[in-house]
Design a protein that fits this description.
The complex is a heterodimer of chains A (about 240) and B (about 290).
Chain A: E1 6-15, E2 18-28, E3 32-37, H1 44-51, E4 59-64, E5 67-68, H2 74-80, E6 82-85, H3 97-104, H4 112-125, H5 127-131, H6 142-154, E7 160-164, H7 172-187, E8 191-195, H8 199-205, E9 208-213, E10 216-222, H9 223-228, H10 230-237
Parallel strand pairs in A: 3-8, 3-9, 6-7, 7-8
Antiparallel strand pairs in A: 1-2, 1-4, 4-5, 9-10
Chain B: H1 3-34, H2 41-59, H3 63-84, H4 94-115, E1 129-132, E2 135-138, H5 139-161, H6 163-173, H7 175-180, H8 185-210, H9 218-232, H10 237-258, H11 263-277
Antiparallel strand pairs in B: 1-2
Helix pairs in contact in B: 1-5, 1-8, 1-9, 1-10, 2-3, 2-4, 2-8, 2-9, 3-8, 5-6, 5-8, 6-8, 9-10, 9-11, 10-11
The chains are: A alpha/beta (about 240), B mainly alpha (about 290).
């Protein structure tokens, strides 16, 4: 069994007096797609925010690529190789697609040529972004914006790409396109941690999954096994 | 109406307006990115003017040579001030940072009055003039205008085309998402405040070539920056440029037609009119904060 890329042990976190995460244990392997599913308010987004340093953890440990990164800031975690595509995409208004993508590479000390090559790679992954490169990124459709947000995450050259709510508010066709791209990226050896409210999409896309309820992991396992679990089907897939 | 005179008055307004643009562009940047109405801005301009005058009279250092170093001293000092002090309250409502910078302004203003004094001073270069028919343009004003425009363009270039500029715009648009890019927001705040102060410093040096400068003018200069931001549209360099030129020409025409005492009044009247007709300013975009 290979070493996990990310190992989270009994992680606790919250906002003010409200504790959201209660002892999360989680592992992400160096390649492939891992999904985190659960209902609204279960703590999925909070978990990603702790992993990218946006909010501090209160207890527990985070080990990434063999290093203890518990308590590290957003810049240190990004430099270590964890990129976070936030919920709602959060592209920068007033900046072009190209500028948004370049901001993803802010921390890297890459040459102009290297950055140009990386941009070309994103454009070949999402050709529509090449056509729109000089357009204000926030004027694009939801699906195109999600492509740009993922591209921005990839520009950091992370080892782990975390995506919060891939499909939220997007047309089914756009979700299919994004899913195909994510499969292609993960086949190239990038680990992806996907938070997704649409459980069906999450299970189709991922190899393994965690089910989170009220800040605790209730089930984990291979996605296709979980998808056949009658309890999960009843709770999340709405099938009788 | 005499056409040559009108051309003269408008050109005077444009030369003044370029300086106004340069004054406002730093103020606008700080307001737009940090949401701080920097009450120190006028005093920083005067401080730079005083330093430039002292370097000229004491050490015979030419203003065009001391311009950038003076700007850098002011800019670095302001960046440190932002980093160690203002950053502590930068997330607070705008009244808090306004009060803090107001207090700092009082300190700097009184310090300047006791270290120097309030006597108006000026660097007299006597570079001669250009005569085009009946229109006369002094070289020192032309030079000040060109440098002001060049620095405004340089700031625009930095914001639009550099890594630092992208980071500043990103912080302005979405602080949290910017930190996800690995951008250290407090550091960008300090750099932005420093950049704004650098522009103030350079303007102070330029002003000292063209007008007598005194600590009594700090409030007026701050007022000009404020008017230009509202007229041109907040937080954009082209907005500050258009607003600055509009204010310069308005004041110049106003003092020609109604006397110099009316110039300041007309500036504020222009601002009020814009607030009624177009609250986003001439080049401001709605929702662009």
């Amino acid at each position: 069994m290979p070493e996990p890329l990310l190992r989270v042990e009994s992680l606790a976190a919250g906002y003010g007096e409200v504790q959201v995460l209660w002892g999360i244990d989680l592992e992400v392997m160096p390649a492939g797609i891992t999904a985190i599913v659960g209902s609204n308010g279960a703590g999925k987004s909070t978990l990603l925010k702790v992993l990218s340093g946006m909010i501090p953890s209160r207890a527990g440990q985070i080990v990434f690529a063999g290093r203890d990164v518990t308590g590290a800031g957003t810049d240190a975690l990004l430099a270590a190789g964890i990129a976070h595509v936030p919920e709602g995409r959060r592209l920068f208004r007033g900046l072009t697609v190209r500028d948004n993508l370049l901001l993803g590479a802010f921390l890297r000390s890459a040459s102009r040529q290297q950055l140009a090559r990386d941009l070309d790679r994103i454009y070949s992954l999402f050709p529509i972004l090449a056509d729109r490169r000089h357009q204000d990124a926030t004027t694009m459709s939801g699906g195109e914006q999600q492509m740009c947000a993922i591209g921005r995450g990839l520009m950091a050259q992370p080892q782990l790409l975390m995506i919060d709510e891939l499909s939220l508010g997007l047309a089914p066709r756009a979700v299919e396109l994004l899913a195909d791209s994510l499969r292609a990226i993960s086949r190239e050896g990038l680990a992806i941690l996907l938070v997704e409210q649409d459980v069906l999409t999450a299970f189709e896309l991922s190899e393994s999954a965690y089910v989170i309820e009220t800040g605790r992991v209730v089930t984990t396992g291979e996605s296709r096994v979980l998808a056949d679990d009658p309890r999960i089907r009843d709770a999340y897939l709405g099938t009788v | 109406m005499d056409v040559a005179l009108l051309v003269q008055v408008v050109l005077n307004g444009l030369m003044l307006g370029a300086l106004y643009a340069c004054i406002a562009v730093g103020f606008s940047l700080v307001w737009g990115v940090l949401n701080i109405i920097n009450m120190l801005h006028g005093s920083l301009i005067v401080l730079a003017g005083y330093l430039t005058c002292s370097l000229w009279t004491e050490a015979h250092i030419h203003p065009f040579a001391s311009l950038i170093p003076v700007g850098l001293v002011i800019g670095v000092g302001a960046a440190v001030l932002q980093f160690v002090l203002i950053n502590r309250v930068v997330q607070q409502p705008v009244l808090t940072t306004l009060t803090l910078t107001f207090g700092l302004d009082m300190i700097l203003y009184n310090l300047m009055n006791s270290v120097f004094d309030a006597t108006p001073r000026r660097v007299t270069l006597d570079l001669g003039r250009v005569t085009l028919g009946e229109v006369v343009l002094p070289w020192d004003r032309i030079a000040a205008m060109l440098v002001a425009l060049a620095l405004t363009a340089l700031l625009y270039g930095i914001l639009r085309g550099s890594r630092l500029g992208r980071a500043i715009v990103a912080v302005r648009m979405d602080r949290e998402a910017a930190s996800l890019m690995g951008i250290r927001v407090p550091r960008i705040y300090a750099l932005t405040f420093g950049l704004g102060a650098f522009m103030a410093g350079v303007c102070g040096a330029l002003l000292s070539i063209v007008y007598p400068i005194t600590t009594n003018a700090t409030g007026q200069l701050l007022g000009k920056a404020f008017i230009v931001c509202v007229v041109g549209g907040l937080g954009t360099v082209p907005g500050a440029l258009v607003g600055g030129l509009a204010l310069g020409v308005t004041e110049s025409l106003g003092s020609h037609w109604f006397g110099p005492q009316a110039a300041a009044l007309l500036g504020f009247a222009l601002m009020l009119a814009l607030l009624v007709v177009r609250p986003t300013g001439l080049l401001g975009r709605k929702g662009y904060e």
